[in-house]
């Protein structure tokens, strides 16, 4: 790309010309660390006179290292002395002097192929590009590596190609620094790979220019925008590169997943060529959208590029949306569009291609889903949306017939519900075993502050921890080689119980064992007893440097964006057993844009129907008379799907009328036993949402879910009311005085005889819903 072209121009070797012995000495001393070689005449001025053998004097008196030197002279008798010193010689008057100099540059200064030689001068192999070097050196005899190591040929060849940092790292190394030739080869390979990875950080390469390594690369296919997620990942790449955080943690690599971005121009082309703009202009169901988009054809050139991609990539893939509006600075669309996971392990290459193409087309289709249209209409009415697509290597490892990471989750640089001693600025992480779908869907997972990893907020007893943390996890099902993605985003996934991972070794990092006899949790998964996901091995024992890494990433992300941020991440073990931490996404937390100072006074509290110190948002709403409520008397934890449907019906009947939504558990969770699994279009007229806890039904707030992020980014007040606290309450009896407009089996639409106001202080998290005193 353009950045690499600029770098090549700046790093091209320069010619330094000295016309006297003293000038040559000065240049040599100044630049000897970076010198590729020396070409010298024999006779030229030294001091105030001409020295007949000044060139040989310079080599003998000044040059103090093994460096290629070419002697050139019109006098042929100087060849014998050059030969005795082991130097190259070219006679100036020869007709082939130009070819001779070219040969010297290629053979000795590294401008040609790197030719691996044995000590007897016989050729073993040759490479022309640094990308080939690592592969070829694995096959080269150790005696050849030792031979070139003695002559410093490796650093010289790299220096000629502008690999200055790497060349200068290798140059001071000596063969004697290594215990044997094998160690020297391993060091060479590791140093080159590290250098190439560092160069790729933050670089977006055109797909047509890729050498098809696809290891820690970021490639663009087609023109147009990268979309919000694509921009965010490119931004993270720059942060990692400039902050050096990628290499700051011993034995742990921090990186981006290898990514191919299909630009928005391809989306336009696909929609136009298949006449799909006419389709979406009408009232079409999500099912019909999926069918029509699946039947449509991607442009042939894109299909061929994806075929080439798959020939070089055989790992599982994640196909993610990256629309123009996603993760923007003003209105991030988190989790509105589709994501598909592909095993990518079928023997039939054409079938793998069709599966990838279908995933891309269904991501396109999700641009116009009922959920997406409702959200877009609420946020930016009339906005034109376009879709880019990210194709990424899925983070994780294979365990038998399933594939998943050791941990994944969401981290936020601001903690919306801090419990002492936690502070808002300390941040919060939600982390789970397996794929991160359970986190962003609002399932029960572990939350803690990276500043206080030993503290689990609000959880003290083993029973509370067991009830509030993860009981199942998602993994990619590698047995599914044939499938139809129209069946849904979970088509290729397995939903597993925590105990199903016992044979995989992953519970050693994430689980504690419940000791029934002592009624306590013991860190680790080695002893007998029920396993509970506490991440003790990571939080307390430091088995993986998770907390330090995520804290550093949140800090540099917030500094880079100039506001609180949220990141999605995943971690696994490399084949050599070393930990790897991947940043999957970054977005701004626009919810903390406090636009006005809110003061909650004594009169507000005296007239409060709802009060809490765990609220999100900032500002004041006034004049709301309507309440949609799931009361404690009608709530049934096993009927949350039916409850969500009733909420959706009432939301449609309230068309355009703002209301306060009140109910137990997590709103918008996909875990129907943790709350009410509504989607955005089912609560689109809610302007304040209240999560309540009931006796026997207590779950932690919804931090980290896509639903939660989108609701709060719209400026909707979000209140969490814990159970059993004087500071947090709902005066249910007051709502009993309201007129029942509509009553369903579980949900009621109430209208109060007086208007309510809502105040939320975004700085403290205090909030009240109250009746104006008059």
Question: Secondary structure elements and their pairing?
Answer:
Layout: H1 2-11, H2 21-31, E1 38-40, E2 44-46, E3 49-51, H3 54-61, E4 69-73, H4 78-84, E5 88-91, H5 97-108, E6 114-117, E7 123-127, H6 130-137, H7 142-151, H8 153-160, H9 164-170, H10 181-200, E8 205-206, E9 218-221, H11 227-243, E10 253-255, E11 259-262, H12 264-273, H13 276-280, H14 286-295, H15 300-312, E12 317-323, E13 339-342, H16 349-366, H17 370-379, E14 387-393, E15 397-399, E16 402-404, E17 407-412, E18 428-432, H18 437-440, E19 446-448, H19 462-468, E20 472-477, E21 493-497, H20 507-510, E22 511-515, E23 520-523, E24 531-533, H21 536-539, H22 546-561, E25 565-573, E26 579-588, H23 602-606, E27 608-612, E28 615-616, E29 619-629, H24 640-653, E30 659-664, E31 666-667, E32 675-676, E33 686-692, H25 706-713, E34 717-721, E35 729-730, H26 732-735, E36 739-743, E37 748-760, E38 767-771
Parallel strand pairs: 1-4, 4-5, 8-9, 9-11, 10-26, 29-30, 30-33, 31-32, 33-34
Antiparallel strand pairs: 2-3, 6-7, 11-14, 12-13, 12-14, 15-16, 16-20, 17-18, 17-25, 18-19, 20-21, 22-23, 22-24, 25-26, 27-35, 27-38, 28-34, 29-37, 36-37, 37-38
């Amino acid at each position: 790309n353009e950045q690499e072209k600029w770098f090549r121009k700046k790093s091209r070797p320069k010619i330094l010309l000295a016309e006297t012995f003293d000038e040559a000495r000065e240049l040599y001393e100044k630049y000897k660390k970076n010198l590729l070689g020396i070409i010298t005449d024999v006779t030229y001025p030294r001091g105030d006179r001409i020295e007949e053998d000044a060139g040989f004097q310079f080599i003998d008196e000044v040059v103090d290292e093994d460096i290629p030197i070419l002697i050139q002279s019109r006098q042929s008798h100087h060849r014998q002395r050059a030969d005795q010193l082991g130097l190259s010689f070219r006679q100036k008057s020869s007709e082939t002097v130009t070819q001779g100099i070219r040969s010297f540059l290629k053979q000795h200064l590294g401008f040609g192929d790197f030719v691996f030689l044995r000590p007897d001068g016989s050729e073993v192999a040759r490479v022309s590009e640094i990308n080939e070097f690592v592969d070829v050196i694995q096959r080269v005899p150790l005696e050849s590596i030792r031979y070139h190591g003695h002559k410093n040929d490796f650093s010289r060849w790299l220096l000629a190609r502008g690999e200055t940092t790497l060349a200068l790292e290798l140059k001071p190394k000596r063969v004697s620094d290594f215990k044997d030739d094998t160690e020297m080869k391993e060091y060479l390979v590791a140093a080159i790979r590290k250098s190439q990875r560092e160069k790729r950080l933050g670089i977006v390469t055109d797909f047509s220019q890729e050498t098809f390594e696809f290891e820690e690369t970021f490639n663009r296919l087609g023109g147009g925008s990268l979309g919000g997620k694509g921009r965010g990942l490119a931004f993270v790449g720059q942060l990692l590169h400039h902050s050096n955080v990628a290499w700051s943690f011993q034995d742990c690599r921090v990186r981006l997943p290898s990514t191919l971005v299909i630009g928005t121009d391809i989306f336009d082309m696909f929609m136009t060529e298949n006449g799909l703009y006419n389709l979406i202009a009408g009232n079409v169901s999500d099912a019909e959208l999926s069918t029509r988009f699946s039947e449509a054809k991607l442009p042939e050139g894109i299909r061929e590029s994806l075929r080439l991609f798959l020939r070089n990539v055989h790992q599982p893939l994640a196909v993610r949306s990256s629309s123009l509006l996603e993760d923007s600075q003003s209105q991030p669309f988190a989790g509105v569009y589709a994501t598909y996971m592909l095993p990518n392990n079928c023997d039939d290459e054409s079938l793998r291609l069709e599966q990838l193409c279908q995933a891309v087309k269904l991501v396109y289709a999700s641009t116009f889903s009922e959920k997406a249209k409702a959200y877009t209409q609420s946020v930016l009415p009339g906005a034109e949306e376009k879709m880019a697509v990210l194709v990424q290597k899925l983070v994780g490892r294979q365990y038998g017939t399933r594939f998943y990471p050791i941990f994944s989750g969401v981290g936020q640089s601001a903690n919306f519900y801090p419990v002492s001693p936690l502070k808002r600025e300390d941040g919060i992480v939600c982390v789970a075993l397996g794929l991160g779908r359970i986190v962003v869907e609002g399932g029960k997972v572990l939350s803690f502050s990276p500043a206080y990893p030993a503290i689990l907020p609000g959880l003290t007893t083993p029973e509370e921890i067991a009830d509030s943390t993860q009981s199942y996890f998602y993994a990619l099902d590698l047995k599914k080689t044939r499938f139809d993605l129209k069946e849904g985003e979970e088509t290729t996934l397995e939903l597993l119980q925590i105990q199903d991972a016992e044979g995989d070794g992953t519970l050693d990092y994430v689980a504690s064992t419940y000791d029934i006899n002592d009624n306590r949790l013991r860190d680790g998964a080695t002893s007998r007893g029920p396993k509970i996901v506490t991440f003790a091995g990571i939080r307390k024992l430091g088995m993986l440097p998770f907390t330090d890494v995520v804290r550093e990433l949140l800090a540099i992300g917030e500094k880079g964006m100039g506001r609180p941020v949220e990141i999605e991440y995943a971690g696994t073990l490399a084949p050599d057993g070393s930990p790897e931490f991947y940043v999957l996404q970054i977005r701004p937390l626009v919810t903390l844009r406090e636009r006005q100072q809110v003061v909650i006074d004594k009169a507000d509290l005296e007239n409060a129907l709802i009060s809490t110190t765990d609220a999100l948002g900032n500002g004041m709403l006034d004049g709301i008379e309507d309440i949609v409520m799931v009361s404690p008397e009608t709530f049934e934890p096993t009927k949350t799907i039916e409850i969500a449907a009733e909420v959706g019906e009432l939301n449609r009947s309230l068309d355009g009328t703002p209301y306060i939504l009140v109910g137990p558990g997590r709103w918008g969770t996909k875990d129907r036993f943790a709350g009410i699994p509504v989607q955005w279009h089912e609560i689109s007229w809610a302007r304040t949402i209240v999560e309540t806890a009931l006796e026997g039904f207590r779950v932690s707030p919804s931090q980290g879910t896509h639903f939660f992020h989108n609701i709060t980014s719209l400026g909707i007040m979000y209140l969490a009311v814990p159970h059993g606290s004087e500071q947090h309450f709902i005066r249910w009896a007051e709502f009993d005085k309201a007129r029942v407009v509509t009553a369903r089996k579980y949900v009621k639409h109430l209208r109060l005889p007086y208007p309510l106001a809502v105040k939320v202080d975004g700085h403290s998290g205090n909030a009240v819903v109250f009746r104006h005193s008059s």
